[in-house]
Here is the input.
Amino acid sequence: MHRIFCIATIFILLSFPQELLRAGAGPSDLTVSYSIGVRGKKGSNMGIGETYNGGVETLFAGSGRMRIRLVSLMRIQSVFMSGDNDQSRKFTIVKESGKNKYVTSLSEKEWKTYNKKYDGAVCKLTEDTAQVLRFVCKKAIITLKDGKTITAWYTTAIQSPAYAYLEPAFSSIPGLVLKYEYVYRKKTLSYTATAVSRNPIAREVFAIPDTGRSTRSADPSKD
Here is the structure.
């Protein structure tokens, strides 16, 4: 009987999603890559949306540090977060491409002001599911004050508390979002996770460049 139990246990471990096992193994670094897609009505002009189509967004999360890097034809930009509490938490936006490269530094209070469009957002959690990679994700619908909506699919198998600070639109979601989409200028933008890794992240990934860029005040209307 003991032998049968051991064999059954090994089978379960081998067949279980390895990302989920690593997620529950304890604190570790997390890297999630998302592919960006843009959809419009057939025959419609994609315009600026085309420059995001095929882009890649990457989330890096370590101990007390986090970074989201966007790479597309339109821009290469990173948002860094450091600190473990409200008093020490800092945010930095770095535009890495084009002629006008800049660095914007924000305190916790300034970051909240920068993302004020998400204040008062209503999040509805549903029982609808979809599979992203090998994770079964539940669906959430986020409605902003202006009536715009974001549809997200999240997994509770991966928890990253600081993620809610770097992506305030998802602050009410009890897990990590692996897919989301919204409508912008009559185009549907979708972000879908293509890889999840628990491998150690090099310290250089969280290093904020401090030369060759001008400083700029935070203005959401410019982004």
Q: What stands out?
A: The domain at 27-201 is CATH 2.50.20.10 (outer membrane lipoprotein receptor (LolB), chain A). The helical segments are 2-15, 18-23, 108-114, 163-166. The longest helix spans residues 2-15. The mean pLDDT is 82.
